[in-house]
Amino acid sequence: QVQLVESGGGLVQAGGSLRLSCAASGRTFANYAMGWIRQAPGKERELVASISTSGSSTYYADSVKGRFTISRDNAKNTMYLQMNSLKTEDTALYYCGARWPYSSSAYASVSQYEYWGQGNQVTVSS
Prior knowledge:
126 residues; globular
């Protein structure tokens, strides 16, 4: 089992920044590929960004490219999402997820994530 706990969400004005953190415990963090998934009201869950086990490979959804940066610190068992130039459409519940890396690609569909955090609300006001 991998336990995941997110932190760092909140309310911010459009154009502002937030940094989300995801602390992992349980099995060896460095063995798992990680991702940030969000869900806005009335919408399906969307993979926002993901990162390979070593951090050398990343994936970003087109909607956040150039604004969000995913990273991980395997020594601290923690993953991060730096969100800049936030837009109202970024408002959602943000989850961190962990999955076994069946391939070297950083990308995987949402359904492949085996472990989930509890979710952290990000609200961007206009």
